[in-house]
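Key result, reporting period 2: structure in, sequence out.
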């Protein structure tokens, strides 16, 4: 075979080999691109499902919160009606101090019942103040007029609490242990706590009354910590995402 023919043959073989390599590379690139497309498509489907689940969850929270707000407004209305009733009774009895005394004691009992059934916010202290006023009225240590002023202040404080959001401190019972904690109160609807070692949670109501429940998921913990941070920055109004469970505390 001549050198020229040999050279042409080698050139053809090299060209074929190069074409085969390019074809193989192209196939591999296409397979990789296809795998990337499938992976991205799967990720998009997953994102859509997560988004839909989030929207459904937010809609449920909105409905639950609307129900809680409606109950709170009803509670405020009933408290105002009680105040109007007490005011009328006091007006009738004010002409006679002795006639005022039993009405004051009845007003104290009504407010005591209200405090015992509402959020456990400084409950012992508030009940102790009422008990002291009741004893002073019963033993004539204060005049009925003075007792009226004290009871009226207690009622107005109860009304103010329904509209007040803020940070406070009080002793709570967590896992059978008394702990001093920071309290974030949202009116008389919701109450969250944070201990010095950053255990966070909320108040929950069941058939046996109120109890303090520690938040279990990282998401719930972050939501509560975010609320405390906002309150510390004097942010009292706005949109806050809170744990779902807190919304059930008035419905159990």
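The corresponding designed sequence is given below.
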């Amino acid at each position: 075979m001549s050198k020229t023919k040999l050279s042409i043959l080698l050139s053809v073989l090299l060209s074929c080999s190069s074409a085969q390599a390019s074809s193989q590379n192209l196939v591999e690139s296409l397979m990789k691109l296809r795998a990337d497309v499938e992976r991205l498509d799967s990720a998009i489907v997953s994102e859509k499902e997560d988004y839909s689940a989030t929207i459904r969850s937010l809609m449920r929270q909105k409905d639950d919160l609307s129900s809680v707000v409606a109950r709170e407004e009803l509670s405020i209305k009933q408290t105002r009606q009680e105040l109007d009733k007490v005011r009328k009774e006091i007006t009738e009895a004010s002409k006679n101090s002795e006639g005022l005394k039993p009405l004051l004691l009845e007003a104290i009992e009504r407010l005591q019942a209200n405090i015992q059934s509402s959020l456990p916010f400084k409950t012992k202290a508030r009940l102790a103040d009422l008990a002291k006023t009741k004893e002073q009225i019963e033993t004539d240590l204060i005049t009925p007029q003075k007792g009226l002023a004290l009871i009226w202040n207690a009622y107005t404080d109860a009304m103010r609490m329904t509209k007040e959001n803020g940070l406070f401190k009080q002793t709570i019972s967590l896992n059978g242990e008394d702990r001093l904690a920071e309290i974030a109160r949202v009116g008389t609807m919701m109450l969250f706590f944070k201990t010095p070692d950053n255990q966070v949670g909320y108040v929950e109501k069941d058939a046996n009354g109120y109890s303090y429940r520690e938040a279990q998921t990282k998401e719930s913990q972050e939501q509560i910590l975010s609320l405390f941070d906002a309150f510390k920055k004097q942010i009292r109004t706005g949109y806050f995402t809170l744990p779902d469970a807190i919304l059930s505390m008035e419905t159990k």
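Residues 245-252 have pLDDT under 50 and may be disordered. Strands lie at 165-174, 177-186, 190-194, 200-206, 209-214. This case is discussed further under Risks and Mitigation.
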